[in-house]
Design a protein that fits this description.
- The protein is built from two helices and four strands, in the order E-E-E-E-H-H.
- The protein is an alpha+beta fold.
- The protein is globular, with a radius of gyration of 13 Å.
């Protein structure tokens, strides 16, 4: 997999953040989007029930809106 771009709430970043950083969207060369976020708390995890092989991360809605504004349309 090759990373095509990494996008945080203020726009594209040159590389993935090391040691933390804001939630991000990472776009791979095959068009797949990976989302970096925070692990749900135990209480939140208990309310979520993803299918086998899937999981959740969390991020503030406003951060998601700001990241989405910088995503390429295609």
């Amino acid at each position: 997999m090759t990373i095509r771009s990494s996008i945080q709430e203020n726009g594209a970043i040159p590389q993935l953040p090391k040691n933390g950083g804001c939630p991000s969207a990472v776009i791979a060369d095959d068009g797949t989007v990976y989302v970096q976020g925070y692990h749900p708390t135990a209480e939140q995890q208990a309310a979520l029930s993803p299918p086998p092989g899937e999981g959740f991360v969390r991020m503030p809605l406003e951060v998601l809106h700001r990241i989405a504004a910088h995503l390429p349309r295609r």
